[in-house]
Amino acid sequence: MSEESQTREAVEQVTQDVKDVKLENGGAAGAAVGAGAASATNGTPAKNDDNAIPFKDAFKLFSKFGDPKSDGKLITLSQSDKWMKQAKVIDGKKITTTDTAIHFKKLKSLKVGVDDYQKFLDDLAKSKKVELEEIKRKLTTCGQPGITTHLPKSPAAAAAVDRLTDTSKYTGSHKQRFDTTGKGKGIAGRKELVDASGYVTGYQHKDTYDKSH
Question: How far apart are CA 138 and CA 74, in angstroms?
Fold first, then answer.
């Protein structure tokens, strides 16, 4: 057997070993197989999320987020919302924190275990008419807790901010704090400074005298 053939065989063996480990842990490879079986009925190509982790592992990570005393068995609404925001399940449009609060409170407990949490997700998915597996996919591929996420601002909010920060529309004393380009004048825009240069106020030719005379 040539050296090239031996190298190729070794690479193939390592690749297969990695797939076997993922299948044993219920990871991405196992999820991909399940997704492939489901997609056979609707013709949608299966997504292979190599960075996915088992749902229970993700649950444990986020149930400890912000609570050093947690053993990872129970999760609160606050922790759940942080998880969903990071995973972009909560997008401020289709699903909001109001929606999650309503469905979480149906469990009648401030903290819930992984089984009840999956019931919460199922109830939420049916209510909002979204796929439960899609929610879980996002929750298991969003990475470890702590990644900062920002929900997009609505067009109305962006327009309001633009309007309030348009210095050309300012009036009264606020108008005096900015020049014609909108740049702040600093202290000169807040206080009337005394000119101690010796020139008469309003003199147009200040500092133009030829000092050679």
Answer: 20
